[in-house]
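[Discussion] Sanity-checking designs against the backbone

I'm trying to build intuition for which residues belong where. Below is a structure token string of 571 positions. I'd appreciate it if someone posts a full sequence so I can compare it with mine line by line.
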């Protein structure tokens, strides 16, 4: 029997929503992971199952399914769970909730089908534009329309969570926003601001262009609009992991969150600073003045602060847990942690790897050092530590804790779970270290054929051949780990054994919200400042890009006959 205060008994319908979001996330994860191992083996020349010509189709599928579908569907599940749990009330309308789940799912299916169609020679549908979709690469309209629907679905989800909060607020005037809900809401405001860039890119430029009714847009403009969104999206992936580190990890470690106010400050800082930094992906783009790049670099360095605060707070909370469990000494407390619990070990290893990923991020962010690593395989090395481990491994580990809570079934196997998270960590050590080192030797990213017989890449230590082997070996371990994860959650969902001990309460923070000024909860104020910062950071660069080459640089000659007279009139 499940206890009365378990999430599943209190919110059976919300649990169903969360299960369906997780299911989509896990299917995307499985297919995406398979694409990943194919690429690792192909690039390194160890096994070439597909034609090199199809490499970009697989790479696009890998990026879109893992970085966009897996992450954001899982986020939607975690946020639905967290908002409901912390406000202690379900979303206001079941129909509305299913409507956004359906919108996101239909959009995903459209984008997925358009990418896969690229593998069928007789079809004229394809979308080999990678997960960073901007001109001049062009996809079929189905891809862009699917993406647009997907993003609209996430907006509706955000509206749903805000409505749930407002309903709570009407009955709880003057109270502090519960912490998990605060995290959900600030993240969603950040997302609303960030997605303005991609909405303009896709709706105003890419859809009309792919439909053939408008000429090719200015590539630099679409790149800049993309990165306006493309940087903050990485924090959109990270924030559900942070939510889990701040609120669930301390509980699993046997302790309490060190400081609730500090957690709030961190989420506010991400809301303010996530977007005005996107140009750090464009340090080598000609056509953007150095001064704008310098501003983006400065903002990026400020943006390290919330993650450094997180490292401090989360480790302090874990240490508190260890000491509650009897741990002592400067480092001896580490031994008292629940290392046999895959949920704990997975999240702790994810955090540990994020320390390394954050370091390679700092290297990327330096304008001058970026020239050394940009467009090399160093960059995939960086993001397999961040999104590929800090986020993905946290999601897997958290699933071992959350899936029993929304299914009522006992986790199928803790030992397999433990082995799986450790295997992911080891696989990633091999793969990402080889990627970082290969990048320093100049090996390019995003190519099926990185050999270049006329170029000898020079490594600082070890040979290029050994790096290739390490990369492929790590990739295979990751794939095995992904399969074990899917098997374990699949068998959990089918497990006849009811889950044990599922109270849904989270312990209060050592330093509670009453110790911080109420202005921290003023979401309107932070939203306003975030918008002002984005305007300051982007208005001049966008203006100068449009000034430079116009919206449609090829001019009206390239315009389809139907639209040319219209453009003449506008001009
Ligand atoms: Fe990044 C490129 C800079 C973080 C993802 N990044 C990428 C791309 C992706 C990505 C996908 O400035 C490639 C896009 C493409 O395809 O072209 N990144 C940064 C910086 C940070 C950063 C400064 N990135 C992320 C995160 C990502 C992500 C997070 C995904 C989730 N990145 C860049 C730059 C580029 C870039 C340039 C462009 C490169 C180029 O040239 O193309 C920072 O936010 C990092 C801050 C992190 C820290 C670490 C804090 C440590 C913590 C660990 C706590 C420990 C625990 C363990 C909990 C300062 C919080 C406790 C355990 C116990 C046992 C006690
Ligand atoms: Cu970035």
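Best answer:
Here's mine. Compare freely.
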């Amino acid at each position: 029997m499940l206890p009365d205060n378990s999430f599943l008994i209190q919110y059976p319908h919300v649990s169903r929503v969360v299960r369906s979001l997780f299911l989509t996330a896990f299917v995307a994860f499985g297919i995406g992971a398979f694409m990943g191992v194919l690429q690792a083996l192909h690039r390194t020349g160890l096994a070439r199952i597909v034609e090199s010509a199809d490499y970009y189709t697989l790479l696009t599928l890998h990026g879109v399914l893992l970085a966009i579908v897996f992450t954001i569907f899982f986020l939607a599940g975690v946020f639905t769970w967290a908002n409901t749990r912390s406000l202690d009330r379900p979303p206001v309308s079941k129909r509305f909730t299913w409507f956004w789940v359906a919108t996101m799912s239909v959009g995903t299916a459209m984008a997925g089908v358009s990418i896969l169609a690229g593998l069928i020679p007789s079809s004229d549908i394809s979308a080999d534009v990678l997960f960073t979709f901007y001109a001049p690469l062009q996809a079929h309209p189905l891809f862009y329309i699917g993406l647009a629907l997907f993003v609209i679905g996430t907006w509706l989800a955000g509206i749903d969570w805000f409505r749930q909060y407002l309903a709570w607020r009407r009955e709880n005037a003057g109270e502090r926003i519960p912490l998990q809900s605060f995290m959900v809401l600030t993240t969603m405001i950040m997302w609303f601001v960030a997605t303005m860039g991609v909405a303009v890119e896709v709706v105003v430029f890419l859809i009309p262009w792919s439909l053939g009714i408008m000429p090719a847009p200015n590539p630099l403009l679409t790149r800049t609009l993309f990165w306006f969104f493309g940087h903050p999206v990485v924090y959109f992936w990270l924030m559900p992991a942070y939510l889990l580190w701040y609120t669930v990890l301390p509980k699993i470690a046997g302790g309490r969150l060190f400081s609730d106010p500090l957690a709030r400050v961190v989420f506010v800082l991400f809301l303010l600073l996530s977007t005005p930094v996107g140009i750090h992906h464009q340090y080598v783009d000609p056509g953007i003045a150095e001064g704008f790049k310098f501003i983006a670099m400065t903002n990026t360095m400020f943006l390290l602060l919330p993650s450094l605060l997180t490292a401090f707070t989360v480790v302090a909370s874990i240490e508190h847990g260890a000491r509650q469990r009897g741990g002592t000494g400067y480092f001896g407390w580490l031994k008292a942690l629940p290392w046999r619990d895959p949920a704990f070990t997975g999240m702790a290893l994810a955090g540990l790897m994020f320390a390394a990923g954050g370091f390679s991020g700092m290297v990327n962010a330096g304008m001058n050092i970026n020239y050394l690593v940009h467009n090399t395989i160093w960059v995939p090395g960086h993001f397999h530590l961040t999104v590929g481990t800090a986020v993905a491994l946290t999601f897997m580990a958290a699933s071992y804790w959350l899936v029993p809570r929304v299914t009522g079934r006992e986790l199928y196997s803790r030992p397999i779970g433990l082995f799986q998270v450790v295997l992911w960590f080891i696989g990633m050590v091999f793969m990402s270290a080889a990627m970082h080192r290969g990048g320093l030797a100049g090996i390019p990213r995003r190519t099926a054929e990185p050999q270049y017989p006329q170029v000898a890449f020079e490594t600082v230590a070890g040979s290029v051949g050994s790096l290739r082997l390490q990369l492929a070996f790590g990739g295979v371990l990751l794939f095995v780990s992904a399969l074990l994860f899917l098997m374990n959650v699949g068998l959990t969902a089918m497990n006849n054994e009811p889950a044990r001990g599922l109270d849904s309460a989270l312990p209060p923070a050592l330093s509670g919200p009453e110790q911080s000024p109420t202005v921290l909860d003023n979401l309107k104020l932070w939203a306003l400042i975030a918008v002002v910062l984005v305007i300051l950071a982007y208005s001049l660069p966008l203006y100068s890009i449009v000034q430079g080459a116009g919206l449609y640089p090829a001019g009206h000659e390239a315009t389809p006959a139907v639209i040319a007279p219209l453009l003449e009139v506008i001009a």
